[in-house]
Each structure stands twice: as C-alpha cells, then as structure tokens.
Amino acid sequence: MLFAGVSLGVFGVGMVATNPARLQIVTSAFADAPNGADTCRFIKVHDGDTIRCGTERVRLLDIDAPELPGSPKCEGYRAARAWCDFDTGYKSRDALREFLAQGPVGLHRQGKDKYGRTLAVVEVNGQSAGQYLISLGLARPW
C-alpha cells in the first residue's frame, strides 16, 4: 500500500492519502472531540509550554517550562526572573513532543495571553500535558 501525506498547516489545509485512489481533504486543523475540546490535527511543538495547532499559537495554560537558547527572556534584566535552564528546556520540549504523539490532542481554550497566543489546557487521552511535564520535573505550575 502506498502512503503519501502533505500538510499545508499555514493555510489550515491538509491532504491525507493512504491509497492514491482515495484522497481526503481536511479543511481545518481541528475536529470536534466528544469531551467539549477541539482535537488538534496538525501539531508543532515550539518548547515545553508552547505549541502550534495549524497556524494557531497555543500556550499551555497550567505550566511554565524552562526557556530554550535564544529566548529574549534570558537576556539582560529579564534573566533574573526567567527559568533559563537550557538543558531542562530541551528535555521539556522533547517530553511534550513524545506525550502529544500518544493520541489525539485536545485543546480546552481559556482565552488569549498578552502575546496573542491562545491559552489552553492541552490533553491527550484525558491527561493534561502540563500536569504530565510537572510530574517529570520538566515544568512548574503556573
């Protein structure tokens, strides 16, 4: 069986073909989930507390994860208040990727932050991604 997949997340459109004779067009990065959350179909993990769902930037509502190198929060006077443990930042990001790969990703939106990102509890199989990272010591409650 031939598999070909293309994701055009910038436009919120994706094509999935498991058989060249059958082509499914997906017009949204989201699907409705039975528990009232939206299920994110196209996910990119930025760091331990920020993902993209299609073109939507999503900040995990319930945690703060360490920064990655290059973060402006780790420069100048802001560095005194930021969590700039880069090694743990990489571990947090990688653990979030692995967690989100375990099943459908649900978003429970709660508003927007000052940077325009959606604030949401992000979950897989009913478990909060934020609480998972906290349990590993890779994030703090926020």
Report on the structure:
With 142 residues, this protein is of the alpha+beta class. The protein has a single domain (29-141), classed as OB fold (Dihydrolipoamide Acetyltransferase, E2P) (Beta Barrel). Helices cover 15% and strands 41% of the residues. The chain contains 2 helices and 13 strands, in the order βββββββββαβββαβ. It has helices at residues 86-100, 129-135, and strands spanning 4-8, 13-19, 22-26, 30-32, 38-40, 43-47, 50-53, 56-60, 63-64, 105-112, 118-124, 127-128, 140-141. Strands 4, 5, 6, 7, 8, 10, 11 and 12 form an 8-stranded mixed beta sheet that branches. A 3-stranded antiparallel beta sheet has the order 1-2-3, with no helix packed on it. The N and C termini lie far apart (46 Å). Mean pLDDT is 81; it is low at 1-34.
